[in-house]
Design goal:
alpha+beta, Nucleoside Triphosphate Pyrophosphohydrolase, seven-stranded mixed sheet, three-stranded antiparallel sheet, 5 helices, 26% helix, 27% strand, elongated
Length: 217
């Protein structure tokens, strides 16, 4: 038995949706959405997304979505990873569409335009399509792979970071504040890390400077 000719089948569209995220010491973990300029759901916030071109690779579609819908150039993307596929006949009111979702760790975000950066869970009550579920999947992807996936972890924390940065990132991802002693022990014994030279204390300030870390290579 063979499949019916492709012309006789109702082929779904392939969409690419991207969850841009950034972590900085000052702002913590943030996720970006952008207001849609056109229907469906014009004026509402949604993830940057595009329909895949016929000859386009998935990752190239994700980079195009970031560039054209969120103003994030490829040079600002530190890490890009596929987090899953989302389907269902009602997820897009225009047509049946399958979304291939990505998480993108980007450099410290700029403000302005239609892009809105918020902490996880601080978005609008409900995003259109199934973008709430995609954001949840992207955050779960990061939460379960932190420290197991070193390129992802390095993209989030940067080349040099403090123990406090690690604690804040883990707290925002898990909702649980890690034990300081366990955090310091894990960083001190991690073969991928080395203690960075601590900055000198300003005159008149006592105490030990905060521990900072960098990557072995």
């Amino acid at each position: 038995m063979t499949d019916a000719p492709s012309a006789a089948r109702d082929q779904p569209l392939i969409a690419i949706d991207v969850v841009p995220m950034s972590f900085t010491a000052g702002d913590g973990l943030r996720v970006a959405t952008a207001r849609r300029p056109y229907d469906p759901y014009a004026g509402l916030e949604a993830l940057p997304g595009v329909l895949l071109d016929g000859t386009e690779l998935l990752a190239d579609g994700a980079r195009r979505a970031l560039r054209t819908k969120a103003g994030i150039d490829a040079a600002a993307v530190r890490h890009l990873a596929q987090v899953g596929a989302f389907d269902g006949p009602d997820r897009d009111p225009r047509s049946t569409a399958i979304s291939v979702a990505f998480a993108a760790v980007v450099a410290a975000p700029s403000t302005g335009g239609s892009v809105v950066w918020r902490g996880p869970g601080q978005g609008e009550p409900r995003l259109p399509f199934d973008h709430d579920a995609i954001i949840a999947a992207a955050l779960d992807h990061v939460r379960t792979r932190l420290w197991h996936d070193l390129p992802l972890t390095r993209a989030l924390l940067g080349d040099t970071f403090s123990t406090a940065d690690v604690a804040r990132l883990q707290t925002e991802l898990t909702g649980v504040t890690p034990d300081p002693g366990n955090t310091n022990r894990a960083l001190r014994t991690n073969p991928a890390l080395v203690r960075a030279d601590a900055p000198a204390r300003a005159a008149g300030r006592g105490g030990r400077p905060p521990a900072t870390w960098t990557w072995v290579s």
